[in-house]
Give the backbone structure.
Amino acid sequence: MDIIWLFLPGILGLGIITSIEDIKTGLIRNKWVLSGIVYAFIMNTGLIIFYWGSLSHQYLLEILTNLLFAIIMGFGLWYAGIWTAGDGKLFIAFAALIPLSSYSYGHINWAPSLMLLMNIFIIGLIFSLSVILRHLSIPRLVSTTKKMLKEFPKRLLESVLYLFSLYWVLNLALSAIGIPSSAFLKIIIAFILFPLIPRGKIFIYVLLLISIARIFLDKDVYNSQFLIGFIINVIIWKSFMFMLKEGLTDLAYEQFCTDIDIRHLKPGMVLQQDIVKENGKFKRIPKPLFSKKSMIDEEPEGLTSAQINILKKTGLKRVRVSRTTPFAPIMTVGAIATILANGNILILLSFVL
């Protein structure tokens, strides 16, 4: 019997309950996440006892390293503002519930749940694009494209040095611990680390020194295939940063973002503008990615009641907020897709097509 049938009730139960609650209340309660992790612990413990004589030490260790990877990614993406803490904990529970045998296509030693993470973001991207295409207007598409092309050259050197140096360090680190280098894994790590690193002249100098070292020590950079791949990575990085910063709200403003009277703010709403005080007056400014300028130290979960009271005292009449999308259903679909595809859904599609 395929052991996935032992874990499937926990996966479906967790996915259905958290999806319903996330849609209704916008919350993912800890008790359901904890229940999923406990279910996974009981099933894995039973399997280890039953198959003890035939299990390799690598299999047992990979269960633990996979869970550790899920914890790092779950809370790392929460800190980076990609999803809420509840979403991060739900990802950890799904990573614990999906057995290693479900990662045939694209299996990565020690961190197979990277495939789950990739599938979740693919499903999320498909959902976002479907919303955008359903309400896309040509004038908005043209204006957003022009804005992206105008923004692209800004801080381009920093992006080039950051990716060139970090990717080399990650290649060496992943190779040392036996994890295959993955473009998706590297760009996710790069994105998580970006807000954690203090930027300035010292940051540029360090990147420059690492880049120079790579030029002398890494022979792989001296071929056209690397150059083309790196240029594509830079374009993806800059486009991704732009889309997260303002591109998605530009393309589908009515669906993702709206101006609202401050008196109508509710806990959980997410600001799409920074609120700063200049010359004794409060004003709204565009919200840069990873901004630390705002007087409101907002969490990914959105505004609190105390922060709303502070905003009401600023004298501002309206603010821009985003409409949050329940992510538990997307994550559940990603988990089911991972099981059906036996790993990476893109690899499976490449075989089918």
About this structure: The longest strand covers residues 273-278. The CA atoms of residues 283 and 351 lie 54 Å apart. The chain is about 65% helix and 5% strand.
